[in-house]
Every structure is written in structure tokens, then in C-alpha cells.
Amino acid sequence: MEQKGKHKEETFLQHPVLFIVVLVFGFVLMDPFEIGPVGGIEFRPVKHDIAPYKEVMASWPRDNKSRLGNGKLEFVDEVFGPESLEFDGFGRGPYTGLADGRIVRWMGEDIGWETFAILCARGVDSTTSKQWKHEKWCGRPLGLRFHKDSGDLYIADAYYGLLVVGPGGGLATPLATHVEGKQILFANDLDIHKNGSIFFTDTSRKYNRVVTYRRLLSRYHFFILLEGETTGRILRYDPPTKTTHVVLDGLAFPNGIQLSKDQSFLLFTETSNCRHFPFSFFRSFKLMKYWVEGPRAGTTELVAHLPGFPDNVRINDKGQFWVAIDCCRTQAQEILVHNPWMRSLYFRLPIKMKILARIMGMKMYTVISLFNENGEIVEVLEDRKGVVMKLVSEVREVEGKLWIGTVAHNHIATLSYP
Prior knowledge:
single chain, alpha+beta, Neuraminidase, 2 domains, 8 helices, 6-blade_b-propeller_TolB-like
């Protein structure tokens, strides 16, 4: 028996390639030095059911002329991370939130950009790409909305929750920082109902936008995306009672939100990560509807499956909806979405996220799409070469022009439309 056991051991050691494969496999499982993309966190990927790749991509209309690439770059190196764009009741703007925590507004060629509001008194003026490392100290304003009657500007901030600042600007006042006794970790976008209620998205109860683990440097919040966790919510703030309530729970990275023209329903996107990270793999790719009023009040329904990673939704004067999409999903993604165990291994590989993205076939470009109230596609504009923008956050249609924001670049884009 001893001879037989010895023979087995010698046989195994005589295959160095197999031995190395076993060692590497064990290293990947353990990731002792925490050098993989998910090193140092409790990573528990889950399975998501998404529409088949071929079904969605075969029916999605394409812009063969790549018309969005004809847009104009505005304010290059003057703003960094202008995700949401707003205009006040006097037509001034755009107003936008920056990576350094400020809300700024454009005052014309003679004056330029001026600071309109800040979220904390220790804010700094910066438009550098590295500002994200410090954003949690003085906020990261994402969604912006003006109240049409009062002129107040409401702000969804990734760290400070829901805030408001008066028509004259200044230091913003926190409104909703907790719900059901727990802190709101990742407020993302908002809209204002005619009765004064504020609907806003809370992307995750587990992760905020930027996190720090142990001795490691700050990282983007792409863990939500990679893991596919579904702790996101839609919340509602009630100004008269100053209380915050949960409207919908169990969502996969709820992101943009927009009430319909008659305010009977709202549209929201499920992105399943901060669509604010350029290498997003596992999003839900959905545009959803939640009924606020009428016989279907309190119910949800699917509006459309999308070809890529949706962000904000904004309405035009006709009651149609512009959806910002970072395109496009790949067949390789679909395999990992349906096999969480593969994701667990793949993202423990000691390889940079950018390289893993390329292996997955990710080549990001911008798509913006216009939907009617029935979820039918009215328009699709693409920028396949990334001439104007490689990553898009929001589209606003104002007086024959599209204003296009991005959380990842140092400019705003415009395009005449129609």
C-alpha cells in the first residue's frame, strides 16, 4: 500500500504543468495579496436574468451615420464630471455638479462659470481627474432638479443624500440623510412631483460611490456592478412631514429617474453598477415604469430592454424621454451574468480591470435614445468613435439643442436637434 501511495505522489510531481495550474488556481481562489479587482472585499456575485443578447441587439435600431459624433465640445477643461444639467426658471444655465462637490452655473461668455452652491464649507475648487479620491469629504452632486414654483434647487448627492439650496445659491441644506434609521449611502438622481414630494434613487445599501478598504487606495464603486447585488431603492421625501419613505426595494443599481408629463408614472433605469465606472459588465439593461397614480398605482412594469448601460432619464416638452446609454453589451458578459461562480474567479485574477474589460470585448461608446410614453423608440443617436463622448450620463433637450453631460469627462457636449 505504501509503494502504491508513493507511486501516485511521484506521478503527480512528474507533471510540473499540472502542478503549476493547481498552484495558480489556488492562488486565484485565495488572492492572499488582495491584488485582484475584488481583493479585500466580501465579494458574493449573484445571478441575474437578462434578456438574451441576440434578441435585444437584433431588434435595436442603429444610427449608421453616427450623428451624435457631429456634436460640439463645450467648456473643455473647465468642468470635470458634469453628470446632470439643469436650467432655472429664467432660462439661465446650464447648472451642473462637479467632482469637487460644487454646483456651478454658466453665466455667459463675459462671466463664465461661477460657483452657485456648495455642499460643505471646506470645499475646494478643482476640476482634475483625480478629484474622485477626495469626493467623499465634500460630496459628489449627481442628480439636479429645480422646483418650478419656488426656484429651489434639489440635489441628490452620493454621500450627503438629498439636499436643497435656495434660488440665490450658497450652502446647501440636508433634507434626507437616513431612512428607517439607517444612512442613505448612495443617492443618485431625483425628480419632483407636483404635490412637492421628492422621488430619488438610492443605488445601494451596501456600497457607496467610492470606498476605501484597509491599507488599499480608494476605489470606484464598481463592486456593486461586479457583484450584481440588489439592495438599491427608490425613496420619497415628504417636505411637510420631513420624512423619507421606501417606495421600491430590491433594485439592481437604480440610477436615473423621471416623472411623466402628467406625473401618473415615473421611469427609472436599473444599471447594476455605478454607471459612473467606465468598465461596467453586469447591468440589468432595463428601462422600468412605476405607476404613481391611477388604478395601477404601486405596480411596476418593463418598458424596454436596452443594448447597453443606462444612466439618467430626462423628459422633453413633448413628454418623450431621453435615455443616456453607454453601449454596448457583449455575448461574453451574458455567460458571466448567468454563472456567478465564474465571476468570482474571473475578478480575482491579478489583472487590471481595464485588461479584463478588453478580454470581455468591451469597447464603450455613447448612445442616446428617445422613447415615447408607450416605450416605443422614437430616435437613436450614436457616437461610435467617441468623438464627442465615450461615456454619457444625461441628455437634456432645450430649445432645439441637446445638452449632454458625463460623469467621466472634462466637458459638456451639445448637438442641434431635431
